[in-house]
Specification:
The chain is mainly alpha-helical. Helix 4 packs antiparallel against helix 9, helix 5 runs parallel beside helix 9 and helix 6 crosses helix 8.
Amino acid sequence: MVESSGFQLGVVGSLALSVASSVSIVICNKVLMSTLGFPFATTLTSWHLLVTFCTLHVAQRLRFFESKSIDTKTVVLFGLLNGTSVGFLNLSLGFNSIGFYQMTKLAIIPFTVLLETLFLKKTFSHSIKLALLLLLLGVGIASVTDLNLNLLGSIVSVLAIATTCISQIMTNTIQKRLKVSSTQLLYQSSPYQASILVATGPFVDRMLTGQNVFAYDYKPLVLAFIVLSCLIAVSVNFSTFLVIGVTSPVTYQVLGHLKTCLILSIGYIMLHDPFTSRNIAGILVAIFGMALYSYFSVQESKKKSANDTLLISQMAKETAPLFADQKS
């Protein structure tokens, strides 16, 4: 019972860390890109991953965690896939309207459910599906505006959805099957994630912004916010792997939409972004859907734990006479 309480406390802590760090980095990056005029999102993400790896390397050398060797092929494939998904998401935002980009992010949840059902034989109850539907409806109302379509943007969005779903499912699966922690997996894979973004970031950013990241005028204030963004990103990357490892890819996506609602609210309160009754209604529906998802998830988890305990008890009763016969 104490172990179960400790696990639940760890889950709550990882969720809180993920929300706090993600909201913080969005505000920091909004100032960096919108106010200070630094538009190179993909290159910035590559720097995030490089700083994350360097931080984890120092932590590992100081014995804060133990490095665990993982099959090289698995780590390389996983790292490159994660880096590719970030690149496609940035391209999706560049080639599509904001509304269509938000729809792309919303589509990740149903596609993740579909993939886990087909390939991992995971089942989702009708209650969970209803809660997810309400969540997606609320976030859609709150954040989706226009839906301008184009062929190239649609193809990029499909690729972004596919790579993101698969990489997040792999994050959960690798940690559980290979018995590695989120820190160990992030430490092993971050160099490969960073490498693909370092190699492609300047070209992607040049394609999207028409500017050269190497020719940019790096003023002291811009550099300060870049450093701050990279430091916050260490917490974002760590908490992402942690949340997916202790919960599931679907729960992580639900948490992501909670962040969207918080960011919309903070943008209105602190940054005076435009806010309408539609935004408020959407956020309320989304929060209701999240509450339902959390409630049903906890109830199903308790039911599963009770069934597992009952099964173990029955097995113990069945094997007890065998041990008694052996003793006699």
